[in-house]
Specification:
Layout lengths: L9 H12 L10 H16 L7 E7 L2 E7 L9 H11 L9 H16 L12 E2 L4 E8 L5 E10 L4 E2 L1 E8 L7 E8 L9 E9 L9 E8 L4 E8 L5 E7 L7 H10 L11 H16 L2 H20 L2 H20 L1
Antiparallel strand pairs: 1-2, 3-6, 4-5, 4-8, 7-10, 8-9, 10-11, 11-12
Helix pairs in contact: 1-2, 6-7, 6-8, 7-8
Length: 334
């Protein structure tokens, strides 16, 4: 496997790639020692870039040994400054014997063909990620009852595979509040003022006591650098939408509308999909019928499945679903 590594957190990238390559390894069920071993091997793999062609990551999980190779590519790797920086970072010079221009050009060509929906690459799957975190400004209440203004609330985290859609429920903080200001932001700082402002939406809401009114804020981000912000007032069902376009977007309004209609399926939370709802209901029934130790086991299984659903990670959800199904089948056989 060859990955174009860049930016921050190389170790985390390698670690995540390892789990994706070996889906049989359930990250959530690993003990602390095994998880620490995998993390350490990812760190060693990062450091292992040298004059050779690749760096190898080798992990022992249970009685099985898992290995993968990683090559460093990218036009910047030809620059002496970048190579020296990478050398200081990794304690060894990175390998760049793969032609970086060809690697990057090939990826860009495939990406362009995918955006044009070309028939010749219909079988090719190339994932892209959100380069920066997208979120909004909120007021946060601390345990001592005090409030902090100007806090950044992430909605779509950076490095999320796109297209993606995420929803966050926000509540009023003042009695008789009749408007909610949604400040759309891009960045990584926990303070809203330090992030890039993309725009604002002002949402009318019914007056009520603080915390009784809420809005569901849904961000949907497309491979074409288009962000759709949808705000739904929970009590009335009224929906407000606004599009935020990147500088390179050359699509017509009709094309953008058609594209986001096609992505509407992403807005359905994984827990609201019919099969997952059915499995959760079965798990709830088992919990309600159990007592003592059996009830604790059922609750643990439910929480683990719910945690995977809330991650929006399809690979993680599928693995958790199979594990939860197995739990339900074993329970019903007792």
């Amino acid at each position: 496997m060859v990955f174009d590594l860049g930016g921050e957190d190389f170790t985390a990238v390698l670690e995540n790639m390892f789990y994706e390559k070996f889906p049989a390894i359930d990250r959530l069920s690993l003990d602390a020692k095994t998880a620490g071993h995998i993390h350490k091997q990812a760190e060693n793999c990062k450091i292992g870039f040298s004059g050779g062609r690749t760096s190898r990551m080798r992990c022992i999980v249970g009685e099985e040994t898992y290995e993968m190779e990683v090559g460093l590519v990218g036009g910047a790797t030809k620059s002496p400054v970048i190579r020296r920086f990478a050398g200081r970072l990794f304690k060894q010079l990175p390998a760049s014997d793969i032609n970086p221009d060809e690697a990057v050009a090939l990826g860009a060509a495939i990406q362009g063909a995918i955006k044009e929906r070309r028939e010749s690459i219909r079988e090719v799957i190339l994932t892209d990620v959100c380069p920066f975190t997208l979120g909004t400004e909120v007021v946060r209440e601390w345990e001592d009852g005090k409030f902090e203004n100007g806090v950044f609330c992430p909605i779509i985290e950076r490095n999320t595979v796109i297209p993606a859609s995420r929803t966050e429920r926000l509540y009023t903080v003042r009695d008789n509040q009749t408007k909610i200001r949604l400040h759309v932001l891009q960045g990584e700082s926990r303070f809203a003022a330090n992030n890039l402002s993309l725009g604002e939406l002002f949402i009318d809401i019914p007056a009520a006591k603080a915390g009784e009114e809420a809005v569901d804020v849904t961000y949907t981000y497309d491979i074409n650098s288009i962000l759709e912000v949808e705000v739904k007032v929970v009590s009335t069902g009224k929906i407000t939408k606004q599009m935020f376009l990147g500088r390179e977007v050359d699509m017509t309004p009709e094309e953008i509308k058609e594209r986001f209609e096609a992505l509407s399926y992403l807005k359905i939370h994984p827990r609201d999909r019919e099969e997952n709802k059915y499995l959760l209901l079965k798990g709830e029934r088992i919990y309600e019928e159990s007592i003592g130790r059996e009830r604790q086991i059922a609750e643990t299984a439910l929480r683990k499945f719910e945690y995977a659903l809330n991650s929006y990670d399809q690979g993680k959800i599928e693995r958790a679903k199979e594990e939860f199904k197995s739990f339900l089948e074993k329970w019903e056989d007792v």
